[in-house]
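Working notes for the structural subgroup meeting. M.R. asked for a predicted model of this chain before we commit to crystallization trials. I am recording the input and output together here so anyone reviewing the notebook later can reproduce the run.

Input as submitted:
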Amino acid sequence: MTQKISSRSARVGVVGMGYVGLPLATEFAKAGFSVTGIDLHQGKVDQLNQGMSYIQDVDTHEVKRLTKENRLSATSDFSVIAELDTINICVPTPLRKTKDPDMSFIQSACQEIAKYFHPGMLVILESTTYPGTTEEVVLPMLASSGLKVGKDFFLCFSPERVDPGNPHYQTRNIPKVVGGVTPACTSMGSLFYSQALETVVPVSSTQVAEMVKLLENTFRMINIGLVNEMAVMCDRMGINVWEVIDAAASKPFGFMPFYHGPGLGGHCIPIDPFYLSWKTKQAGIEARFIELAGYINGQMPHFVVEKIQTALNDCSKPVKGSQIHILGVAYKRDIDDVRESPALDIIHLLLQRGAKVSYSDPHVPSIKVDGHELFSTKINGEIEKSDCVVIITDHSSVNYQAVLRKAQLIVDTRNTLRGQVSKKIVRL
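Returned structure, recorded in token form:
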């Protein structure tokens, strides 16, 4: 296996061709490997085999080139694993409503891998999960073949660190942490990643690697929770929290600026820390910071709606019956991902209060809220006839000066209109 990886003749497989899997598969194909993506979504498989990318950070021209060169292909048939040497598992790990981790996607993928498992394989789990998953869930399913880990096959965990829309850091140049079940596994995983990625960071175990991801996202979640709470306090005291944060950030040591907002979005920060919270409860430990930050962050959409209602009341307009236009529904700037987006919660709450809601987002043509499908509209036509415009996601392609000129009232949750002075503007 070492020789196959070093010569880049190893046949690479990636299970789950989404925001993590497709960029990873592309990087290994670009490095000269033959890569097969496996996904149960036939639409994704067909698009990839036609040379089309459905992920914003992966260039369609690159996918087309790699498919033409037979470096990248896709299938929904797991039997192809019998011909592969390595497998990266990049499937979703959602939370149930009870905030327990849903391992069904990982278990299903491993069951399929086990059917076609063979000696010499390197398997790496990348799906974010609780510490212990690789050895407690994945290892028994693969070891049931009778093969010995670290000798007959190699098993690692490597946390994904995808940041959609980041212009500076993509899969290739984000340092890759990897930990194996045995030292031999770690060495094999490190060798594999070093063929396509710039920096590899080996750690002593799968549990350490699993905890790394949770620490990273819990750190962000808790600090965002702190500044969200600070925003609510400053609002009550009539203090501009944006100015407070900017001034505090002038300190050259001991402070890192985090910014509040309408709520947390994406698949990582709102979800990942609760894997750790769930796991620690099994050990009789209460993750108080995580639970508290989760509560505070979860209340921010309600706080935004209260700000909207107060702003409309000050204009002698009730929320019920008012035309409210949302600018941006993706969970972060300049991407098309609406997973866990606070915009969806805010629209839901506004509809509950009887508001008439429309939205504009250059990256998201339609959304579903409360069983109803809403479609993105042209900004200019909606702003002038709306009672209130709410900036939820600050996409860079929007002309906010034009929004300021035409809108009657603006609730700015992102400080997009920084430096602008107007009675129209209500800041979070």
